[in-house]
Amino acid sequence: MNQVMKPKREVGIIGYGAYVPRYRIKAHEIARVWGGAEDALPIDEKAVPGLDEDTITMSIEAARNALARAQIDAQQLRAVWVGSESHPYAVKPSSTLVAEALGASGAVLAGDWQFACKAGTEAMQAAIALVGSEMADYALAIGMDTAQGRPHDALEYTAGAGGAAYILGPAENALAVLEASYSYVTDTPDFFRRAYQHYPEHGNRFTGEPAYFDHTLTATQNFLELMNYTPRDFHYVVLHQPNVKFPLQAAQQLGFTRDQVIHGLLVGKIGNTYAGASLIGMTNVLDNAKAGDRILLVSFGSGAGSDVFSYIVTEKILERRDLAKRTAFYLGRRELIDYARYARFRNKLVMN
Amino acid sequence: MAENLAPNWRLREQRYQLVGNVCLNCNAKFFPPRQVCANCRGTEFDSFQFSGKGELYSFTTLRSAPAGFENYAPYSVGMIKLDEGPLVEAMLTDVNEDELAIGMRMEMVTRKIREEEGERGLIVYGYKFRRDNENEEKRNARR
Question: Are A238 and A294 in contact (CB under 8 A)?
Answer without folding.
Answer: no
